[in-house]
Amino acid sequence: MLDRIKSFKKIDAHSHIGVFGSWSNVSITAEELIADMDEYNVEKAVISTFPIKESIEAVDKYPDRLIGAAWVNPMEKDALDIIKDAVKNHGFKGIKLHPLSQAYLPNDECVFPIAELAGELDIPLMIHTGHPPFSLPWSVAQLADIYPDVKMVMIHMGHGNGMYVQSAIDMAKKYPNLYLETSGMPMHTKIKEAYEQVGADRIMWGLDAPFHHPTVEMQRTIVSGLNDSQLEDVFYNNAKKLLKL
Ligand SMILES: [Zn+2]
């Protein structure tokens, strides 16, 4: 299984660097993440940090391996300037929002200027999903309904709760600008369901380092029931296309 895991070239659509203390008690440096990427055949990883400084430094240092997603708090008034600087001066390819940890709804009006800027810059919003009350798929879907031309990735595609995972799939079926990312989502079967029912190019693999081990996240995808060319879409092609890598 390990050889098969390593045989697929990958892009990690969602990871972090840094120290996450408190309840999670995990950490990883940029160098440690890249060592794991080398070990498990991950060509590039999309990283985000809050505040953004640490990810800007890492992306500047390893531009061939690390891709930035600009994590901002929409309630802070310099959020738009932070995104513009990250995209124009550091090549960031997406915007990361974490409505749960920063306590706002994805469809709150504080997010509207961010969504408009994502549209202008033609980059996706990557939104944490899976926890009430601030990060449920239905709220992301309401934002997707308001901004049909802005692509939005539901990070964790509903995360650990099966009802939220199903709602992420249901909402993505309804809104063609919604995409799904697999990290932390426990059901291997839902990866195949999403690939077939939502769309072959709308589900992508991610690790969410340092919260998960690479082999765990990779194995779930490999046993999902998809064939090898479909797995290549999930592991590599879909993130490459969405993020224009
Ligand atoms: Zn994450």
Produce a short descriptive summary.
The chain has 245 residues and is an alpha/beta fold. The protein has one domain: TIM Barrel, CATH 3.20.20.140.
Descriptive report:
With 245 residues, the chain is of the alpha/beta class. It is built from eleven helices and ten strands. It has helices at residues 2-7, 30-39, 53-61, 79-90, 99-102, 112-121, 137-146, 162-174, 188-197, 214-222, 228-243; strands at 10-15, 18-20, 26-28, 42-47, 66-71, 94-97, 125-128, 152-155, 178-181, 203-204. The strands form two sheets. Strands 1-4-5-6-7-8-9-10 form an eight-stranded parallel sheet. Strands 2-3 form a two-stranded antiparallel sheet. Strand 9, helix 9 (188-197) and strand 10 (203-204) form a beta-alpha-beta unit. Helix 8 (162-174) packs parallel to helix 9 (188-197). It is globular. 51% of the residues are buried. Bound molecules: zinc ion. The site of zinc ion has 3 residues, from loops.
